[in-house]
Design goal:
By secondary structure, the chain is of the alpha/beta class. The protein contains 23 helices and 13 strands. Strands 4-3-5-6-7-8 form a six-stranded parallel β-sheet. A five-stranded parallel β-sheet has the order 10-9-11-12-13, with helices on both faces. The structure holds 2-acetamido-2-deoxy-beta-D-glucopyranose (NAG) (6 copies).
Length: 637
Amino acid sequence: MKAFEYNMERQIIGKSRKKLWFIVSASFLFWFLFLYFYSEFTVGKKPSTLLGNDFANSENDRESNSAHVPESSYELVTQLPDMGIQMNEETGDVRNDVGKTGPNSNRTRNLESAKNIFHAEDDGFESVDQMVVSVKELDPDDQTHPRDNEGQFVNELVSGSSENREESENEVAPKVDGDKRNPDLPKQSSTENQRGFDESDIDSCLGRYIYVQDLPRRFNEDLLKNCRSLSNWTDMCEFTSNLGLGPHLPNFVKVYSKTGWFGTNQFLLEVIFHNRMKQYGCLTKDPSMASAIFVPYYAGLDVARYLWGSNITMRDSGPLQLVKWLRGKPEWKKMWGRDHFLVAGRITWDFRRLTDGEFDWGSKLMLLPESKNMTILTIESSPWHNNDFAIPYPTYFHPSRDIEVFQWQNRMRRQKRRFLFSFAGAPRPNLQDSIRNEIIEQCRASRRKCKLLECVKGSNKCYKPVFVMKMFQSSVFCLQPPGDSYTRRSAFDSILAGCIPVFFHPGSAYVQYIWHLPKDHNKYSVLIPDFDIKKKNVSIERILHKFPRQKIRAMREEVIRLIPKLIYANPSSRLQNLDDAFDIAIKGVIERVSTIEREMREGKNSSFDYLEELTWKYNLLGTVEGEHEWDRFFARS
Ligand SMILES: *[C@@H]1O[C@H](CO)[C@@H](O)[C@H](O)[C@H]1NC(C)=O
Ligand SMILES: *[C@@H]1O[C@H](CO)[C@@H](O)[C@H](O)[C@H]1NC(C)=O
Ligand SMILES: *[C@@H]1O[C@H](CO)[C@@H](O)[C@H](O)[C@H]1NC(C)=O
Ligand SMILES: *[C@@H]1O[C@H](CO)[C@@H](O)[C@H](O)[C@H]1NC(C)=O
Ligand SMILES: *[C@@H]1O[C@H](CO)[C@@H](O)[C@H](O)[C@H]1NC(C)=O
Ligand SMILES: *[C@@H]1O[C@H](CO)[C@@H](O)[C@H](O)[C@H]1NC(C)=O
């Protein structure tokens, strides 16, 4: 440009060099200012988004600096010649010392002691390069950006795509089905608006801003730094790699897809959620603007260090320090913590110790007066308490792009399913009420129709996600009986595999994941009451056999349609238009907080104006009046 203009000037004007340079610099200045304002206009129009992204990027940098290097992975590989991947989770049961109607403190968690060993394809580094690659893929055709400045390129693309995202949310028509708990309309993409000129997106974050409380590092990052101390049996350092997703799962036997699969530990949700939050499009650094305040405390990782062999003082010290710290912040006073929320990535009974007896199970995090004012997200909530809400367990699938989800869904639609039903799990000989034995017996009796992956000592098949996922992908129905507690991760793994879940208790899903699952449970699952199994007068095979082909196809389609809502996207990027489990959880929290705020303003408290013990019913039906066929499931003697 310089040379061109120089020639032009000389031919046409033919004046002195000084003047020429003046013109050249002036034109440069003009172009500079033009580009500056142009980019300000397009990118900087939405200060909130920029703020959010800056925040996200700086946080990600911090994350990659403190990435955990799994030093031991090579040793482990040599110890384990078959190079399989083992999980300590018995195919998704939370091994817990919890009876069916509440905590039952003294059983040993023997399965947690199952040593788990990893061979990982990848060393677990989460690098900036990786992020650049994945963000680039958002817009492969874009040639207008200088390639020599990757950082800037990423920034611009991220804000571009986020505008696209917010904009498309605006375009979505109001929901017609009236089911507010289930916001499932797809966001439409609008590629022509990639650079975002639409005035309306100035306020698209209004009512959705989240402020992330700036906790001292001892409540989160220090726990990851000292990952060796998190468990005596599990190498949690492996699991904390890749922003909490764990090591990449190699696709040797084509059970997974090429990308997006990780050996994710079910107790890492706190870390995944926190990292997902860094990608949230409506973060604010101004707490007064926020609709909700996120408290990034790793409650489950904290308490797990002290669940075995420590005294209750140790277990409660983290929670007590946390609420003391929170109470001292100006943000607390605004709503007395009712706009605060946190994620406790273990089941609720690990945080609801019944007594202060030295041998009783868990901490009392959820019982503290401050916690009762907060919203606590957890993988299994209490049907009888109203401050905790269940959100999906993490599965092994963490896609970075929408297309990965669509491809997976299509594959699960086409999958050949040889078995009518299947079960992966262990019996519970110590639990009197357990229906596991009966289920295993029935599966064995239906030899051709049922596939059993029994978790017994000596067989490590059921600790390896590859066997479990393969079995679920070959089954029409997947049995999900309660284990030590109502819920299991396995239910989400089975949905991910397009296998229709069969529940035996409404506490296993229907009264739990009320933000994520459709209200009409018959659309996507089967309920066979555990009472009937115990009476030994029902045949699971006969019940499942009765479903007509057409009905099965419709149910499976519903299951497959649920997949995006139940998975946590890879926090190192973000999905373009799909809402994942994180997005839906955020909507749930914000809706709850705004209801509470409205009621506080109007001097009402109807949200809490029912017997707390009936929380399950209120959450399910919006009222606690009248009898319900599930009353007997939740009756407390
Ligand atoms: C739990 O175990 C301890 C020590 O083994 C024992 O003293 C206590 O009675 C047990 N508590 C229950 C509720 O079984
Ligand atoms: C690991 O074992 C030590 C010693 O027995 C114990 O003090 C510590 O609490 C245990 N840690 C966990 C996470 O269980
Ligand atoms: C609990 O355990 C900690 C660490 O082992 C110890 O310092 C403390 O004195 C114990 N507290 C009680 C009440 O036993
Ligand atoms: C919980 O909220 C109520 C108001 O809803 C307030 O009176 C109470 O002090 C709060 N508790 C704490 C510990 O802040
Ligand atoms: C099992 O027995 C109970 C009561 O005895 C009865 O209500 C139920 O219908 C029976 N189920 C089947 C499938 O026979
Ligand atoms: C709600 O308000 C009623 C009356 O105003 C009161 O009796 C009740 O205790 C309140 N409930 C809660 C949970 O604050």
